[in-house]
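Appendix B. Raw example, untouched.
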Amino acid sequence: MIDCKLKDKILNKIVSESPKMTFGFDSEDSLEIFGFNQELVSSVLDYFESIGLIDQDKFLGGSIVLEILIPAHDLVAHGGFTAKEELLTNNIEKLLVEIESLKPLLPGKVETINSIISGIATGLALFKPMKK
């Protein structure tokens, strides 16, 4: 499964080892370089490109050259994907507490508030890691 920690590991590797804002490698070496197979790394890099963290050039023979963009450095500096997820989770938990506190003030809307809380709690469960 591609999770925040996996994306952070790949992002940290390419950002920390790219003083000239480029990172080149052979896709066949993905397991050795990143610790993940080339299909997984390719998928993650395609995602990074789609959200504006990198530009990539793929060449015949499997060579890949990445241009590391400023937003990638910013994301790493601010804790990566894991920090973004934790921030979102914390904000949703605060929202749940605030909504719960509105129940006594709006007795006619308890059913609506319960429905909102249920929806938010369901969404929050998607972000919490599953226990093994």
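End of appendix B.
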